[in-house]
Amino acid sequence: MDPSRIEPFRNRFTLTVRAEREEQPPRPQKPPKPHEGPTGTDGKEKPNESKLNVPRPQEIWEAAWGNQDPVFDRFTAMRIKRQPGAPEDSHVYDYFINMDNVFLVQATKTQPKRASEHRERFKFGMTLIALALIRQDVEAKKRDEQKPETEEDEGKAKPLDIHDSVADVTSAIAPFLLPLVESLSQITGTAESLSAVAGEAA
Q1: In this structure, is residue 197 part of a structural domain?
Q2: What is the pTM of this model?
Q3: How far apart are CA 54 and CA 91, in angstroms?
């Protein structure tokens, strides 16, 4: 109220109450297309490599070692080759895995019931390592292109070709890959020494 006014101030409000909104049922999800999701065109589940979009390497057994260029041997793990006709700056490669690598053969002979598991782990692990090396090579080349060249850079040795890097690194890690994967899967707070399970080539 205002004593100086004859008529009081009046404020009018209108409140509208609506009925409670009914919860709508969730919309049905569309089925994945044949090339999407964890299943293939035949409806069967794809291996883990497909889910992670990891390339499936071509298996090379001892009988075909001599047909490779360069030739495979018992210590070869994985090699990559640029696809025929691909440009020099292409990063798409074909992958070749040695299924008779001496350390893989040792593992399958020691645990024949797990031979298939060891082979899949070896293939998958080596492919991931190769992908990591390729990615590192691509990033290193990008940095070199952006960095101005100095006199010190002229005297530095050029890095290994990516094909040689993949071959060297995968061969070096071959004795330890399967023991490493096995040890990591069993870690419960106390890690087992890898030297006890890595073994040596016969």
Answers
A1: no
A2: 0.64
A3: 14
